[in-house]
Design brief:
2 domains; binds magnesium ion; 8-stranded mixed β-sheet; binds aspartic acid; single chain; 41% helix
């Protein structure tokens, strides 16, 4: 069995939905994981924030706009009145449900229930479309099997048991359809795997069923060697190792959700990135093997904040770093980069919700400086053969750009530098010239 995940743009309108129906119509046994149609989750987020703010009029007008958009999709997608009626009825019931929240108290629980509607609708639309085309398929509700634990992390053991039970009771089917992104938490409430989480769903599903392959279908032809939004003539990479792909995804390559590599890596299931618009292109294949090319790709991650703790006295002592890290742990804030000297330690973070509290705590250990509007530029590849001077090439390319931090040697796949965001585009282009 293989897993195919189609992102928001791949199901973004009625013709796209028809295209993917054609694409999946073969004898291969498969689970299809769908995102919400492009734009829907953003609209639902904005509806929810109006409801939080008790702006019922604004919420209602956004709900009506979105609902009408779906009736248009229904009219374009189905040719028979039977399926137009069925699908319209389905849309109406989802939107009646969303509207029911405009009357009551609005909390995180209601917000998550609203956010789940996008994937519930896209999968139901697709399921009806396959039915109208006489293509047999079974809808597996993600809320029946996708689970997170008390920490809010996916519970792979439970997902495995639940999903395999669901499949067993529909064993004769070749095509299963399910929702990405949505799940239930440890209290059984509707929850989600955070924005962009459909890739993560696909990877967890692939791991749970020990799939032959996990395919992530988007609107670009694989992971590129540099950011196509800022650099001309980038090209897709044909092979990446799990570690290389994880570094690129984490440090800014938008094509793949950063968490989605790990389940596939642990279960050693190849991940293929494919372009829905150009299905014949090879895309990028991510496996446990690295193909040995030395420098592969560059990615950039914005909105980085650097925190420097100056403390000549404490740094000499062991246990200091533990105390520093504990503060970040308490505030559930991951650290991306770290550098140390005898008198100071610098770290970077990209989640700043608890920055003020973190700084207040850190102040007990030394003088703290905070810098924002920074970007991590990450060069990924195979840096084992350092004698060939790859790291030197990176720094040579960046010689006209002020560098705030450098991270090298943490893994064999990554050289990262921290620069001002205003220097990002220049840095990406200079690196492109010197490295490729
Ligand atoms: N629909 C969700 C989002 O827009 C999940 C996803 O598409 O991956 O974030
Ligand atoms: Mg995505």
């Amino acid at each position: 069995m293989i897993v195919l995940k189609f992102g928001g743009t791949s199901v973004g309108n009625s013709s796209r939905i028809k295209e993917i129906a054609e694409l999946i119509n073969n004898n291969q046994k498969k689970i299809i994981v769908l995102s919400a149609m492009a734009g829907t989750t953003n609209d639902l987020v904005s509806i929810a924030s109006h409801l939080y703010a008790k702006e019922h009029e604004a919420a209602n007008s956004k709900i009506n706009l979105l609902e009408n958009h779906y009736y248009k999709v229904v009219n374009e997608l189905y040719h028979s009145s039977e399926f137009r009626e069925k699908a319209s009825g389905m849309i109406k019931s989802h939107f009646d449900y969303i509207k029911s929240f405009t009357l009551d108290m609005f909390t995180l629980f209601e917000e998550k229930a609203i956010l789940a509607q996008g994937e519930l609708i896209s999968t139901a639309l697709f399921h009806y479309f396959l039915q109208e085309q006489n293509i047999k398929s079974v809808l597996l509700p993600a809320l029946n099997f996708m689970r997170t634990n008390e920490e809010g992390e996916p519970d792979l053991e439970e997902i495995k048991v639940n999903l395999n039970t669901e499949i067993k009771s529909n064993e004769s089917s070749d095509i299963y359809i399910t929702q990405g992104y949505i799940c239930r938490n440890s209290y059984g409430e509707i929850d989600n795997l955070k924005r962009g989480g459909s890739d993560y769903s696909a990877s967890l599903i692939g791991a749970a069923i020990e799939a032959e392959e996990i395919q992530i279908w988007t609107d670009i032809d694989g992971m590129h060697n540099n950011d196509p939004r800022f650099v001309d003539k980038t090209h897709p990479l044909s092979n990446l190792s799990f570690d290389e792909a994880a570094e690129l995804a984490y440090f800014g390559a938008k094509i793949l959700h950063p968490s989605s590599i790990l389940p596939a890596k642990l279960a050693n299931i190849p991940v293929r990135l494919k372009n829905t618009m150009k299905p014949n292109l090879e895309g990028t294949l991510i496996t446990s093997e690295s193909d040995g090319i030395s420098i592969k790709a560059i990615a950039a991650k914005d909105s980085i904040t650097a925190i420097k703790i100056n403390s000549g006295r404490m740094l000499l002592a062991y246990g200091f770093l533990r105390k520093v890290f504990e503060i970040f742990e308490i505030y559930k804030t991951p650290i991306d980069m770290i550098t140390t000297s005898e008198v100071a330690v610098s770290v970077t973070i990209d989640q700043t919700e608890n920055l003020a509290s973190i700084v207040e705590e850190l102040n007990k250990y030394g003088r703290v400086e905070v810098d924002s509007n920074l970007t991590i530029i990450c060069v990924v590849g195979n840096f084992i053969a350092e004698s060939k001077g790859y790291a030197v090439k990176v720094f040579d390319a960046l010689k006209s750009i002020p560098i705030r931090m450098i991270s090298y040697g943490g893994s064999m796949h990554n050289v990262s530098v921290l620069v001002n965001t205003s220097d990002k585009v220049k840095a990406l282009n200079e690196l492109n010239v010197k490295l490729f």
